[in-house]
Specification:
single chain, mainly beta
Length: 199
């Protein structure tokens, strides 16, 4: 019987606690540069998909099942529409990461910034439980190195860490120079939903 990662993901989402930044994307930590096509990357990952096979109303425990086996999740009091969940419903948990890089045509004044925002979208009172937590992080970074032959750009963010970015479209490098700045926007989101399958 499995209690994670589905229980952890659902508990974090339906409790309204942001786990998105703490939840590593698949292959996170790999020493690969960010690959950009037209200065944007967009990746979606299916973390869990299964079926509701049992509901214990007294303990508010839901048992899910997929090809990897069964998982249990205890629905806390924050899930006010628990009674709408039925046996045979589908549960889906996904993670999404998008990165956009935009050249700012100004000379670097040494000011690098980082702004984070968080948005939570929940189901309505008469709908089955669903929730999406979206984080947006905007970083203004200095360009510290440009290698047009290898299509590489190195940028220094607010923490002083230097990140090397691979640009697939060489035309984007035509007017990029050391001393200018870029705006890097990271969107990451985790979503969970329970739905009635279509007949």
């Amino acid at each position: 019987m499995k209690y994670a990662p589905i229980a952890l993901a659902l508990a974090a989402l339906f409790a309204g606690t942001s786990l998105v930044n703490a939840q590593p994307a698949p292959n996170a930590g790999a020493a690969k540069p960010v690959v950009i096509d037209a200065a944007v990357t967009d990746n979606r990952y299916q973390l869990y998909e299964g079926e509701v096979v049992k509901i214990d109303k007294k303990t508010r425990t839901i048992t899910f099942k997929n090809k990897e086996g069964e998982s249990k999740f205890v629905a806390g009091p924050e899930i006010t529409n628990f009674a709408l969940i039925k046996k045979g419903d589908r549960v889906n948990v996904s993670y999404e990461l998008a990165v956009a890089i935009e050249l700012i045509k100004t000379k670097s004044d040494g000011i690098r910034t980082k702004v984070e925002t968080n948005t939570v979208t929940k189901s309505k009172a008469d709908e089955k439980p669903s929730e999406k937590i979206t984080n947006k992080t905007t970083i203004v970074a200095d360009i510290v190195e440009v290698d047009r032959e290898k299509k590489l750009v190195s940028v220094k963010g607010p923490s002083g860490k230097i990140t090397t970015v691979t640009v697939k479209n060489p035309a984007l490098l035509a007017d990029v120079n050391v001393g200018e700045q870029v705006k890097v926007i990271y969107f990451d989101a985790m979503a969970a939903s329970i739905t009635t399958p279509k007949k």
